[in-house]
Write a structure and sequence with these properties.
6-stranded parallel sheet; alpha/beta; 4-stranded antiparallel sheet; 16 helices
Length: 418
Amino acid sequence: MKDYNISKHSSFYAIGLNYKKADAVIRGKFSLDENAISRLLEQAKLIDLDDLLVTSTCNRTELYGFAQHPFQLIKLLCDNTQGSLEEFQEVAYVYKNNEAINHIYRMGTGLDSQILGDFEIISQLRQSFNRSKKLKMAQPFMERLCNSVIQASRRIKNETEISSGATSVAFASVHYIINTIPEVSEKNILLFGTGKIGRNTCENLIKHTKNSHITLINRTKVKAEKIAGKFNLIVKDYGDLQTEIRNTDVLIVATGAQTPTISKELIHTKKPLLILDLSIPKNVAENVTELDNVTVVHLDHLSQMTDETLENRKKYVPQAEAIIEEVKDDFIKWLETRKFAPVIKALKKKLKTMKDEELDFQRKKLENFNSKQADIVTERVIQKITTQFANHLKDKEIDSDTSLELIQRVFQLEVESK
C-alpha cells in the first residue's frame, strides 16, 4: 500500500475475531463499549496511527487501519479489553492490504454475518466510521472505502433477495420461544434490557405470539416506558427485577453489560423458567444453569438455527458476490489513481509556474495585454494537459511506473511524498 500515497504507514490491516472461531465467552473478553473504543482511538493517535476503524458487535470485534505492523493494532485491542494476546492468537485473524479490503466488503454486506444477509452490520459500520471521523481518525482512504461498502450493501439489499424473510437474533429468539413453550400467548414474559436487540425482540414477540403479558425492565426506566407506550406494555422498576423473575415463565436478557446482570441468587422460582441470553458478553451467570427448573439458551445457539429462510438466502450469495466485485472494482480504480496523484499534483504545480512566468513576460512586453482572459485560457489548457496525463496513467495497457518516471524526468518534477 505504500505506493498509493495514502498513509505514512506501509500496510492496511484488518485484525479481529468473530463467531466462527471465538465462542461467546472469548468474544465477551474482547468486546469494546463506546468508552473503550474512544479510548482506543485516542491511544492510536499517540502511537502516530492516522486511519483506524473499530467495530464491536455481539458477533465480532475488529480493527481496520494502516500500521507498520499488525501487532500495533493487536496490542491496542488487548490493552483495552480483558482478552490476552495468547487468547487472541488462538482464535483471531489478520488480513493485509487486498485481503483486508475483501474482508470489510464481506463483513459490511452481511455475507460474513452469523446470520446470512443480516444488514444490521452496515449501520454499525457507519457508526464506527462516524466515530473515527469525529476523532479525526478517518482519512480519505477510509471514507472512500466505507462509502463503497455501504454502496455495495445497499445494492445487494435492493437487487437480491438475500435479506428476504424474517431471520435475525430477535426473530430466532421468538421462534425458539414459540416452538418450546406451549400456549405461549398465555405465559408471562419478562424482557430485561431495551436496547436495539431488546426493542427488536419486543416487536417480534408482539407480532408473533399475540401475548399481552409482556413486562419490560430497564436500568433507565424512561427508555422502557418509551417502548411500552408504543405497544401498551407493563413497565416495572429495576428494583422489582427479582420479584418479576419469580412470576415469569420466560426471561429475555438483552442488557449488553460487561458483567452478568442475572445471577443464581436473583432466581427464586418454583415453576419452569426459560432464559434467553441475547448479550455479548454473556449477561446470565454460568451458575444459573445449576438450577433444576431453569433452562438457559444463549444467542450463539439461536443464531445456529437454520430454517428454510436461511437456506433460501444462500441461493443469492453468487449474485451478491458479483455486486461486491463490481463496486469494489470502482474502488480499486480510484485506489490506483492514488499512485500517480503526487506526480499529477507536481506536474500541475510546474505548469502553473511556467504559465505565471510566461504571462508575466507577456504582460511586460505587450500593451493592453488582457491578463485576466489569458489566465482563464491557460488554466483550462493546464487542466486539459493534466487530465490527459491522468487518463494515460489509468490505462491498463501501459506501464504506469515507467510513464511516471518519464513525466518526472521530462518536467524535472519535485514530488512530495505522503
